[in-house]
Amino acid sequence: MSSSAGVMSSPTDAGRDGMSPVPGLETGGMVGPPAPVEVPRSPALSRAALTPLTPLLIVLVALAAAVLIPNLYSDVNGLDPYQLRASGVAIALLIVVMLVPGLARARLVFVSIVTVTLSWSAFQAASAVLGHLGVRQTGDQANLYQSLAWFAVTVVVLLFLRLAPLESRPRLRLLHFGRPALALTAGGILLFVFVTLLIPAGLLGREGLAIPALARDSIWLVPANMLQAAAQELQFRGLLLGSLEKVTTPLLANLGQATVFALAHLAIVYQGPEAPLVVVTALLGVLLGLATQKTNSLWPAIAVHMVADVAVFAAVLPGLYGF
């Protein structure tokens, strides 16, 4: 018979033996209600996640004022033929952010905005500059030269950022292209082409595709649209998304870049019959950003955006503008 037989275990002994002690017994107190458990707030809605977006909101308001207020005057082109005012405001705000240590976390975001505005100014100015240099160009040729300027400014900024320390660079996701990225690229392209073909021609203001005109213009406009798509993906799903991800949650970063993507199109690209497409652009921005995050690759977004722009040029714009 064990020497411990008949000896009652203390609560402490019971805890050591693996049994759970009765709450309150070890202290002799009464068993009270459990302490309230604080439920943590969702990271996507926390103040810490939202605060870094404040500088982005400030720069968007400033740019909106810079772009829209001069439109109250009758001679908009005389005020700013290349829309340099947007780039000037963005660069001025970036200088302020670079000089204020407390705004260091927002610097990459402001660099992203400067890239968007400066590349658009280059797009606007390229044709006129070449004209002053004596280069003769048709409208389609001018579009290609402008697109090259747009893409070139974007690449120059990205190369400049390579000089920054590794931990300070945004994630561009250009070095990865696995099977998920390949599958999403193929599926996205097929889906976009399928949806485009389903749209009745009458809704686009045309009876059919003007094949001779498309064949004539495609030599210049297809590469132009592909360059524009690549530049925009490098700017928004590459530089801006990667910059926002360093200061806030992935969800808010994606929504932030898609918002800027849509507003940029509304302010400087979509005019006339194209304006309602800004809603589609915002949704496309969210989907392309999500694809970039899930596959850890920018290439699916670049490929799908290229196909989208070429499809819009070939099937949508001719009906909307009658050419």
Key descriptive features of the protein:
disordered N terminus, 12 helices, single chain, disordered C terminus, 323 residues, globular, 65% helix, mainly alpha
Notes on the protein architecture:
Helices cover 65% and strands 0% of the residues. It is mostly helical and 323 residues long. Helix 5 packs antiparallel against helix 6, helix 8 (179-198) runs parallel beside helix 12 (299-321) and helix 10 (250-268) packs antiparallel against helix 11 (278-295).
Write the layout of secondary structure elements.
Blueprint: H1 11-16, H2 47-50, H3 54-68, H4 76-79, H5 84-99, H6 107-132, H7 139-161, H8 179-198, H9 211-245, H10 250-268, H11 278-295, H12 299-321
Helix pairs in contact: 3-5, 5-6, 6-7, 6-9, 7-9, 8-12, 9-10, 9-12, 10-11, 11-12
Largest sheet: none
Mean pLDDT: 78
Total of helices: 12
Supply the helix-strand structural class: mainly alpha
- Principal-axes geometry comes out as globular
Number of domains: 1
The total strand number stands at: 0
Distance between the termini: 104 Å
| Helix content class | 55-70%
Q: What fraction of the residues are assigned to beta strands by DSSP?
A: under 5%
